[in-house]
Design brief:
The chain is α/β, with parallel strands linked by helices. It has 13 helices and ten strands. α4 runs parallel beside α5. Bound molecules: alpha-methylisocitric acid.
Length: about 325
């Protein structure tokens, strides 16, 4: 009998397409987020939509809503962990620990793409960063050509390193991936548009692609035409679109991004901006009315439920403990 092994839901293999016919003696190994993301890229033509998440709660909400992938924003990580602006202040440790926590809330759930900024140093630091992201369970990362004291890609006054230095970062990342036999998806990002123009961006991305980068990211498109052109100029190489509403470029919806031919669409500020608005409105109300005004039904239990309360109680009971037999 021919045996077909396909990827089933929850990242588990299915044999002959039917999870119920699995041989119970077969040792099933769930696949990593990296392999899952790579397969989504290589074996489908879907647009992989990744809401930007920056902490455990925002990631839990994305998981609850069933997104097929997530994006850990560096800007959001810097804002939430350091309380600082996206100006190159978050270091490898801040980024890796945040990514590791988020990627492991559901290790066989949606793959996590994480921001790796500049790689945090020279080739040795890039190698260390890539190794740590792999070990953290990150499925894909983007690495860029801004100078080390970088800034958000949607601010003015960006500076990039020369092409050779950028390619050194890509080479260091790629050889680490190869050395560790990892499926992690390498996304080459360029921020050269402001300083050097569109043609230089395409040249940098083509060179990164030729060194083995899996996906390209041209940061800060100034028009929809330019975004569409980039997809065409680099086809069939997959491109990622970073959609920052009220950022440097036009608003492009997921429907338009798909039609243009992008393969991954991250929304860096998808959680951070609403969190700011929601928290600010609530705290203003506390100041003026003496109460936060949380809507009925939104108590601790409801919020903890988003954060895996039932699952935790089940794990505890299965271990034979009775801490939650009477509920919480
Ligand atoms: C994608 C990005 O690197 C991020 O940290 O989310 C930022 C987003 C932002 O600050 O607007 C970037 O585009 O540089």
């Amino acid at each position: 009998m021919a045996i077909t092994i396909t990827l089933g839901p929850n990242g588990q293999y299915q044999v002959n397409g039917d999870a119920n016919q699995l041989d119970p003696n077969l040792d099933l190994v769930p696949i990593t987020g990296a392999t899952k993301l790579r397969r989504m890229l290589n074996e489908t033509d879907e647009l992989i939509v990744c809401p930007g998440v920056y902490d455990g709660l925002s990631a839990r909400i994305a998981l609850q809503l069933g997104f097929s992938a997530m994006y850990m924003t560096g800007a959001g990580t810097t804002a939430s962990r350091l309380g600082m602006a996206d100006l190159g202040l978050a270091q490898l440790h801040d980024m890796k620990t945040n990514a590791e926590m988020i990627a492991n809330l559901d290790p066989y759930g949606p793959p996590l793409i994480a921001d790796m900024d500049t790689g945090y140093g020279g080739p040795l630091m890039v190698a260390k960063s890539v190794q740590q992201y792999i070990q953290a369970g990150v499925a894909g990362f983007h690495i860029e050509d801004q100078v080390l004291s970088k800034r958000c890609g949607h601010l003015a006054g960006k500076k990039v390193v020369n092409r050779e230095e950028y390619l050194m970062r890509i080479r260091a990342a790629k050889s680490t991936i190869n050395r560790l036999h990892s499926d992690i998806v390498l996304i080459a990002r360029t921020d050269a548009l402001q300083q050097h123009g569109y043609e230089e961006c395409i040249a940098r991305l083509k060179a990164a692609r030729d060194l083995g980068a899996d996906v390209g990211l041209l940061e800060g498109f100034t028009s929809k035409e330019q975004a569409r052109q980039a997809v065409q100029d680099l086809a069939p190489w997959p491109l990622l679109l970073n959609m920052v509403e009220n950022g440097a470029g036009p608003v492009i919806t997921t429907f338009e991004a798909k039609e243009m031919g992008f393969r991954i669409n991250i929304f860096s500020f998808a959680s951070l901006a609403p969190a700011y608005l929601g928290i600010k409105a609530a705290l203003e109300r506390l100041k003026t009315d003496g109460v936060v005004g949380t809507p009925e039904g939104l108590g601790p239990r409801k919020l903890f439920e988003v954060c895996g309360l039932s699952e935790s109680m089940k794990i505890d009971a299965e271990a034979g403990n009775s801490a939650f037999v009477n509920g919480v």
